[in-house]
Recover the amino acids of this structure.
């Protein structure tokens, strides 16, 4: 069994990374192109709003900045969760995992609020190429965050079943990689959609 | 792996035994999965071939009435989709699965269950897409499915939904497989095997997996956008609302051109194994072979718009992509030169694998050269949408990729099945195919330059198209005979093998690691780790130099090979869940097309499979080989069974948005 533990931490593999961790890295590499495609589509369509609301008229930048801050902070708590488990501190690991999941949920809540507000203001999914691209890009990101929350909750359940121990901290690290990636992607999306001055009608 | 011995929920035991059909649907053995890929792809090959013959029958005479315009559109679309996504790609996956772990001296791939998942997802995706025939609504927009032509206005039926969702499902298979094989190659090579001691085939497969890793998500985006347009009224491809009609073309070809190299590079790898073996020389310029493959991998991303020279992308784009297209011929030319230089001065044996490999070198050269003519934009403007293009890409994909795969069949058949394929029938197979192929596609150059349009269901008499079309149709049926010769060969050889002595350890005097194992490969692959000292390790153990520097045989294959007798090797246990998870996806597809209620059973299957996957015990303690812990350094890397949520969630991330 010692062998297995050693391998799961990446000793004796070609890259020095465990198979699981390398798998996550390759997956994230692929995800870059997924979001690359969606972001490009948005960039092409941000000025094509037809008779519908223009991006510059409808975005509430202060609100989204706050929810972006919430998401970024969740990366911090993710690191704290990992570091707690690496020290063998199960209790703090659970606290920070839960906090990360809650911050992620808060971000998703903010997105739902933002979407409903836009809908009320006349920006539906089918309104214009801009609206389709906007909802698709941010929606895809929201789905990724939601999946991350599912992973975090799975870790938490695993912890309460007593199987998430110091020796398995790499699992938390791998979920953390995913979580940080989703955060980093949001930095790009936030910049491209909200911070770069948008066309107005 | 201690964590899962807790056995959380009693019902999740792992399947037992390794015989019969249960074994085939639960197997996680890379060799069996490779065979499944190959057999399935050959079935789809027969379907795609039948579609090709229908096309040729329709076009045999002017004003053909065999199919009619509507069916013709569906048949040529499904022919393209089938041959690209359900034949060439999975055939390459068959070779990659079977050979890659063997060529790097590993027990299995890094994630055996994910490997099984890839296969089943591919199978169900392919069946889903072909189900469109049953529903009488096969896709009719061409394999490239240009939007807005494929939007609901111009393609009102369900055909393009089958296309979008079917390719989406098969994309999951390719992506999972790509991640798995990349990890396998990077992490699990035998001791001493540095990256530059890997066989060229392994290298080319690695490059292909990186291409897949980065190209599949792009078509995933395109297919999502198309699906959202068609099903939810989005405006990505609706010019009335101000959408850009070129968006699809860009997204598709950013995927589509790397895809061309995804199709051809595995065959380049195969013949780079076959040609040295049958020329009895090491591959000429190994580093150039590897680096030209890598260069093709990079440059393949910078040429996509040469598919769009007449789409109105502007003179600067046209000029830039013309130049990049000319440049990508350079690394390809390097490869062709190196194959020729490998043969030069060698003691060549023209067995069937070598015949097919030489076929690739010659036919691909023709296809490559006609490809360079496309880089001249003014000429391309004349050639676009004519049969000249059809001729070109068949010379590349049939003459390159498919012939290479047949070379691989004949070369590695004894490795997988323990007997050779019949040489005489093999030669019939080769000559029928190569003659039929040139009769079919050679004249299409002429037809194209005469102005015959592709994708048009018929032509009028009097344009001078009659003779060459009839000629091509005859050629297509000769190809069909060639394929029959192959199938007959498989059957005849298997029957003959029952009464014949088993094939030796080393029928071809081969060079790379997979031949260290007996034929057919035992279930555990290698008895012991192989300490790799050189490229072509197997050959170097058989041959040395005498005092005059001449190459002499120093050991027989019997002395070098392992006898496959190890019984204490730890094997990953089979699993039910890959097939269950994959079976859920077509339901979700039907749900998105017809009624969301179908998504319920589909989603339930997927969820159940994920949880079964995560919670099934790491290993079946009563399994066939149990825990025989010896000192095999990488044996324990084989199973992926860490049962962690992250991994399971990672692989569902792709399909979750569909559900």
């Amino acid at each position: 069994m010692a062998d297995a533990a050693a391998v799961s931490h990446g000793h004796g593999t070609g890259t020095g990374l465990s198979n699981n961790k390398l798998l996550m890295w390759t997956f994230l590499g692929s995800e870059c192109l997924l979001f690359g495609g969606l972001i490009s589509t948005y960039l092409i369509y941000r000025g094509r709003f037809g008779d519908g609301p223009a991006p510059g008229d409808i975005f509430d930048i202060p609100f989204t900045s706050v929810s972006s801050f919430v998401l970024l902070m969740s990366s911090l708590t993710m690191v704290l969760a990992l570091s707690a488990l690496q020290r063998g501190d199960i209790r703090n690991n659970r606290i920070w995992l839960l906090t990360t999941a809650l911050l992620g949920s808060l971000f998703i809540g903010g997105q739902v609020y933002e979407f409903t507000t836009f809908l009320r203001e006349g920006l539906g999914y089918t309104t214009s190429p801009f609206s389709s691209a906007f909802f698709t890009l941010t929606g895809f990101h929201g789905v990724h965050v939601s999946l991350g929350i599912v992973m975090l909750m799975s870790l938490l359940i695993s912890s309460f079943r007593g199987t998430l121990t110091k020796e398995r901290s790499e699992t938390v690290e791998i979920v953390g990689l995913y979580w940080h990636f989703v955060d980093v992607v949001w930095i790009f999306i936030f910049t491209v959609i909200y911070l770069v001055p948008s066309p107005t009608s | 792996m201690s964590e899962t011995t807790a056995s959380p929920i009693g019902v999740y035991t792992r399947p037992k035994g390794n015989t019969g059909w249960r074994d085939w649907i639960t197997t996680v053995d890379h060799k069996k999965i490779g065979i499944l890929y190959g057999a399935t792809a050959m079935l789809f090959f027969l379907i795609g071939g039948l579609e090709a013959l229908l096309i040729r029958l329709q076009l045999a005479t002017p004003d053909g009435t065999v199919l009619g315009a509507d069916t013709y559109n569906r048949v040529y679309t499904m022919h393209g989709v089938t041959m690209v996504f359900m034949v060439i790609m999975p055939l390459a996956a068959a070779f990659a699965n079977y050979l890659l772990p063997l060529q790097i001296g590993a027990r299995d791939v890094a994630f055996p269950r994910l490997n099984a998942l890839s296969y089943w997802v591919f199978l169900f995706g392919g069946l889903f897409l072909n189900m469109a025939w049953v529903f009488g609504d096969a896709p009719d927009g061409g394999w490239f499915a240009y939007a807005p032509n494929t939007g609901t206005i111009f393609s009102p039926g369900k055909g393009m939904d089958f296309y979008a969702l079917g390719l989406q499902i098969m994309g999951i298979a390719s992506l999972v497989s790509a991640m798995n094989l990349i990890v396998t190659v990077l992490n699990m090579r035998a001791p001493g095997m540095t990256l530059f001691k890997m066989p060229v085939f392994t290298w080319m497969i690695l490059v292909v997996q990186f291409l897949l890793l980065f190209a599949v998500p792009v078509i995933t985006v395109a297919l999502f956008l198309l699906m959202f347009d068609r099903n939810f009224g989005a405006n990505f491809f609706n010019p009335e609302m101000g959408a850009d009609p070129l968006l699809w073309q860009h997204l598709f070809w950013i995927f589509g051109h790397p895809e061309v190299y995804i199709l051809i590079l595995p065959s380049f790898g195969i013949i780079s194994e076959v040609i040295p073996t049958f020329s009895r020389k090491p591959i000429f310029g190994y580093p150039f072979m590897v680096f030209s493959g890598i260069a093709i991998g990079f440059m393949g991303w910078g040429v996509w718009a040469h598919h769009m020279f007449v789409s109105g992308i502007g003179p600067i784009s046209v000029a830039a992509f013309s130049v990049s297209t000319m440049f990508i011929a350079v690394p390809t030319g390097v490869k062709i030169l190196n194959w020729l230089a490998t043969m030069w001065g060698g003691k060549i044996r023209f067995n069937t694998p070598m015949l097919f490999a030489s076929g690739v070198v010659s036919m691909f050269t023709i296809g490559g050269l006609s490809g360079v003519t496309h880089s001249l934009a003014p000429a391309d403007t004349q050639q676009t949408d004519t049969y000249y293009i059809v001729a070109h890409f068949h010379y590349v994909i049939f003459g390159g990729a498919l012939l290479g795969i047949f070379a691989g069949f004949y070369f590695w058949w004894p490795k997988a099945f323990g007997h050779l394929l019949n040489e005489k029938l093999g030669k019939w197979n080769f000559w029928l195919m190569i003659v039929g192929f040139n009769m079919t596609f050679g004249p299409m150059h002429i037809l194209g330059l005469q102005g015959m349009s592709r994708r048009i269901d018929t032509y009028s008499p009097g344009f001078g198209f009659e003779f060459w079309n009839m000629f091509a149709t005859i050629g297509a049926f000769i190809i069909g005979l060639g394929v029959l010769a192959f199938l007959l060969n498989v059957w005849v050889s298997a029957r003959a093998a029952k009464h014949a002595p088993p094939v030796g350890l080393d029928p071809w005097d081969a060079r790379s690691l997979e031949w260290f194992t007996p034929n057919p490969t035992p279930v555990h692959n290698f008895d012991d780790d192989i300490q790799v000292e050189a490229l072509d390790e197997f050959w170097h153990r058989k041959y040395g130099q005498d005092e005059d520097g001449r190459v002499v045989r120093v050991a027989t294959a019997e002395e070098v090979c392992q006898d496959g007798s190890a019984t204490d090797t730890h094997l990953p246990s089979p699993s039910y869940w890959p097939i269950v998870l994959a079976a859920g996806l077509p339901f979700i597809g039907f749900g998105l097309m017809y009624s969301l209620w179908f998504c319920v059973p589909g989603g339930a299957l997927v969820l159940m499979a994920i949880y079964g996957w995560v919670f099934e015990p790491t290993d079946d303690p009563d399994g066939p080989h149990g825990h025989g812990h010896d000192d095999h350094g990488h044996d324990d890397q084989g199973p992926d069974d860490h049962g962690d949520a992250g991994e399971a969630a990672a692989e569902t991330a792709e399909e979750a948005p569909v559900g």
Summary: The first strand of chain B starts at residue 543 and ends at 545. Residues 1-10, 621-659 of chain B have pLDDT under 50 and may be disordered.
